[in-house]
Amino acid sequence: MSIEKNTRPLESGIYTDLDGQLTYAGYLDLGRLLSAQHPLSSPPHHDEMLFIIQHQTSELWLKLLIHELTAAIEHLRNDRVWQFGKVVARCKRVLDQLTNQWSVLETLTPSEYMEFREILGPSSGFQSLQYRQVEFLLGNKNAGMVKVFKHDPGAQQTLQSALDAPSLYDEFLRYLARWGHAVPAAHLQRDWSEPHARNDDLLPVFERIYEDTNNFYREYALCEDLVDLETQFQLWRYRHMRTVMRIIGFKRGTGGSSGVDFLKRALDLTFFPELFEVRTSIGRD
Ligand code: HEM
Ligand SMILES: N[C@@H](CC(=O)c1ccccc1NC=O)C(=O)O
Questions:
Q1: CA distances, 77 to each of 86, 172, 203, 225, 276 (Å)
Q2: DSSP of 68-96, one letter per residue?
Q3: Ligand 2 centroid to 259 CA: how many Å?
Q4: ipTM of the assembly?
């Protein structure tokens, strides 16, 4: 019997004549996907493949994240709270993947990286269009980033549209206003290309929700979803900064920045400031 030979026989129903049919490789366009790794080091450096694939897989997850965050914003705009929760749950898991993936790149030592770093020229993750779109969707708007894409008008247009559109938090504040919460008018119609400006007047809105969670359970759950998203996103930033620190120390970045110091400063940014501040103020007399 095959079990004794430690093999699994094919079943007779399994398709083996796939000429002209939709196949795995065809559906997934694997011919293109798996021939898109082009190491530049010469002679080829063993670890450049890791470097390329780490970035390419990150870009694929970022693509899904943009897809899901865009849907999340659209659900919120249309008061589809349950659907919003489903999509955001997926975003959190995608961010988990992106964050945990740093452990693969952390196996690259400084000595190995230095052997091929020079081939990267001025290229840098700083120029990732999809990463910048995610930052803008979450609300970290920065008009200055658009000029980084001057060399690519299509990319520049995509980023400009993301800059000009309301972010997740903007749509959330509009949602709260529609459902009777006292969101100041300045947050309901404004120049969306600016980042959200922290506002004391929003604190009572969130205090009311967090102090009466039975009544406002929908709003409360949405708030906690946003807190999860920001926390998870910060973990990605932190792991990136620590990975960079262990691989290039305090060297300048290939993109022209100061390196680790520049990445550390991103950790002080916040998408949803009032959602963290409300935690300080609730429960006080
Ligand atoms: C050896 C590995 C890596 C090193 C040494 C490194 C280093 C750096 C440095 C120094 C910067 C600052 C900009 C600059 O001057 O270049 C940066 C930015 C960035 N990197 Fe990396 N990086 C690495 C891997 C990755 C990976 C795998 C990704 C995944 C896509 C990534 C995405 C980014 C992004 C999105 C930024 C912009 C961050 C921001 O604007 O706050 N990096 N990286
Ligand atoms: N900024 C990195 C280079 C780097 O990591 C990189 C280069 C090209 C494409 C993506 C990259 N990833 C993140 O910045 C460095 O300074 O070594």
A1: 15, 8, 22, 16, 23
A2: HHHHHHHHHHTT-HHHHHHHHHHHHHHHH
A3: 10
A4: 0.98
